[in-house]
């Protein structure tokens, strides 16, 4: 099992727009493509409160590549994403890491 941690650093004041896009649009597309979210977090205390961190679960990097690429190239997703950013950009920068659990990790 592989977990992908993604951190979206939002433009100032745009975190609510990102949360709305995930809740109302993105999750529907992920369901269509079989992308499995583990959880979503905002930062209570840290370097910025304008970030969304989330984890995705994958069986393998090959599964991730196939499903993520299909999602990213979906013309309906591309159109919906563009609509949400018509007035202003939402995400300024994305960080992602692929994590594998240790032998003693409760989440595997």
Automatic annotation (TrEMBL):
<dbReference type="Pfam" id="PF07978">
    <property type="entry name" value="NIPSNAP"/>
</dbReference>
<feature type="domain" description="NIPSNAP">
    <location>
        <begin position="4"/>
        <end position="106"/>
    </location>
</feature>
<dbReference type="InterPro" id="IPR011008">
    <property type="entry name" value="Dimeric_a/b-barrel"/>
</dbReference>
<protein>
    <submittedName>
        <fullName>NIPSNAP protein</fullName>
    </submittedName>
</protein>
<dbReference type="InterPro" id="IPR012577">
    <property type="entry name" value="NIPSNAP"/>
</dbReference>
